[in-house]
Amino acid sequence: MLVVEDLTRRYGNRHAVDRISLRIERGSFVGVIGRSGAGKSTFLRMLNRLAEPSDGRILFEGTDVTALRGRALRRWRARCAMIFQQFNLVGRLDVLTNVLMGRLSRTPSHRALLKLWSPQERALALAALEGFDMGAFAGNRADQLSGGQQQRVAIARALVQEPDLILADEPVASLDPRNTKLVMDALADANKRLGITVLCNLHSLDLARAYCDRLIGLADGRVVFDGRAFDLTEDV
Ligand code: ADP
Ligand code: ADP
C-alpha cells in the first residue's frame, strides 16, 4: 500500500536519510529503530511531508505523495495522523476539544472555529477517550494531565481523524514504564481493532520486539535491518 523508493533527505551535504526503499503492507505495525541521529524522525516526517524529500518517491495506493501540492497535500496529511514525543496538545483547551481537533481536516474549518461540532462528532471524540480510560478527563484542561494521559489524548485525537496511517515519532520517549505500556497498548489497539497501519519510531529494542510485526533498523540514514522482530539478534 505504501511504497518508498530511494527516499533521501540531505541537510547540506549530510544525508539524514539515504536512499531508503521499502514496501509497507496495509494493517502492519512497523517499528523503526536506531540510535539517535539515525534518521528515524526525518524518515517518518517525510511520509506526511512535514519534511521535504531531497530525492526519491513515496507512493500510496499508486498516488505519488511526493508530488502533491496544496489541497491534495492537505488531504494526504489528513490520512496520516502524527503522534509526537511531546504530545502537541493545546494546553489551555479542554481534553474533548483537543480530541475534536483531530476532526479539523474532516470538517469545514469555519464550523470548527465556531465550535460547531456536531453531536455525532462529540460522541465520537468522547468514545475515543473512553477507549483509553480518559473519558472522565474530557472537561479538564489538557495541561493538567500527566504525560501518559496527554499521549493517550493525542492518540484519541489521531483516531477521530480516521487516518489510514499513524506515524508515531518516539511516542513513549518521555514516559515512565507504566504509561509506556498504556500508550503502546493504545497504538496496538488502533492497529489490531481498527486496522490502522502504524509506523512507530522507538529507541527501545525490547518495546519494538514486544509490539511490532516488523522492524526496520536505520543507521546513518540507511536500512540496516528489515525483518521480523524475532529474527533480530544484534543491536542496531
Ligand atoms: P533520529 O530521529 O533517528 O534521531 P533525525 O532524523 O532526527 O534522527 O536526524 C538524522 C540526521 O539529520 C541527524 O544527523 C540530524 O542532526 C540531521 N538533521 C535532522 N533534522 C535536521 C535539520 N532540520 N537541519 C539539519 N540537520 C538535521
Ligand atoms: P512548517 O512550515 O513550520 O513545517 P507545517 O504546517 O508543515 O509548518 O507544520 C507545523 C506543525 O504543525 C508541525 O510541526 C506539526 O506539529 C503540525 N502539523 C502539521 N501537519 C500535521 C499533521 N498532518 N498531523 C499532525 N500535526 C501536523
Radius of gyration: 18 Å
Mean pLDDT: 93
N/C terminus separation? 27 Å
Bound molecules: adenosine-5'-diphosphate
Approximately what portion of the residues adopt beta-strand conformation? 25-35%
Structural class: alpha/beta
Biggest sheet: strand arrangement: 6-7-8-3-9-10
Total of helices:
8
Order of helices and strands: EEEHEEHEHHHHEHEHEE
Q: What is the tally of beta strands?
A: 10
Produce the secondary structure layout:
Layout: E1 2-11, E2 14-24, E3 29-33, H1 40-47, E4 55-60, E5 63-64, H2 70-79, E6 80-84, H3 95-100, H4 109-113, H5 119-131, H6 147-160, E7 165-169, H7 177-194, E8 197-202, H8 205-211, E9 214-219, E10 222-227
Parallel strand pairs: 3-8, 3-9, 6-7, 7-8
Antiparallel strand pairs: 1-2, 1-4, 4-5, 9-10
Helix pairs in contact: 5-6, 6-7
Bound molecules: adenosine-5'-diphosphate (2 copies).
How would you characterize this protein structure?
The model has no long low-confidence stretch (mean pLDDT 93). The strands form 2 sheets. This protein has a 6-stranded mixed β-sheet, with helices on both faces. Helices cover 34% and strands 26% of the residues. It is globular and about 45 Å long. Strand 1 (2-11) and strand 2 form a beta hairpin. The protein has helices at 40-47, 70-79, 95-100, 109-113, 119-131, 147-160, 177-194, 205-211, and strands at 2-11, 14-24, 29-33, 55-60, 63-64, 80-84, 165-169, 197-202, 214-219, 222-227. It has 236 residues and is α/β, with parallel strands linked by helices. Helix 5 (119-131) packs across helix 6 (147-160). It has 8 helices and 10 strands. The longest helix is centred in the C-terminal third of the chain and has 18 residues, at 177-194. The protein starts with a strand and ends in a 9-residue tail after the last strand. One adenosine-5'-diphosphate binds at residues 48, 50, 77, 80, 82, 88. This is Phosphate-import ATP-binding protein PhnC. Keywords: ATP-binding, Cell membrane, Membrane, Nucleotide-binding, Translocase, Transport.
